[in-house]
Amino acid sequence: MLRQLGAGLIAACVVLVPSTAAQADAISLATGSIDWAQIAVQGVPVYTSQYTIAIGEAARNGTAAAQVRHDLASWSDVSALNLLTDTKGYSEGAANTLLVEARTSADGLVTWQSSATGRVERGAYFTVAGPTDFNLSVPYSFYRELVMDTSVSVYPFVSLWLAEVDGSSYTTLASRSFIFDKANVSGTWTDAGVITFETDVSLVSSKAYTYNVVLFAASSASKAAPVPEPATLLLVGGGLLAFRLRRARGR
To answer: Residue 230 is inside which H or E element, if any?
Structure first.
């Protein structure tokens, strides 16, 4: 009787163990670029200084990797990469191109949460030879890819800013942010065009000014870690019962 009971319980355990079918990961990717070679500035600025700042960040399972940041007092090449296993935050400011990438994924086993950002900032301080309006045209492109399983998101944008400079203080004259679709929908998505940044303020030769262009991308992915199934506990119980049956037969 005991032997039949033990065999039946072990068979039940085998039936109750869930299958280990592969599950899709949560994946999020956002990339962006600005064609700096095609950027157009109307107002004939006389540059006094220029700068590029690139920043990359990545975090996995609640642990952030150190932020990587590069600053240059020019428009030369600069890059920042923060690669942490399945997470990547990257930015680059080359002479003719600005690039950003934020890539994350989560499998719910080794990685259950990841986040990344890429940010590149470019700007200049300048004066003008005479009264003029200030117009800035910025060609851009973005790519987004989402594989949904539990939670993923992307957040790409371009922001533009113009200010008057007086010593160490700044007076904002105009600003604009161009935020792209970040709806959590599986699939791929692209967008490209030109942002035109116009101001109603006339610049004058007796003052100093600065403008700034920021290209940014962020992504995140999360997937809950697996919870032990009740069938696992039943298997353990079945193993203990089998052990007791062997001991009973040996008496």
So the answer is: helix 230-250
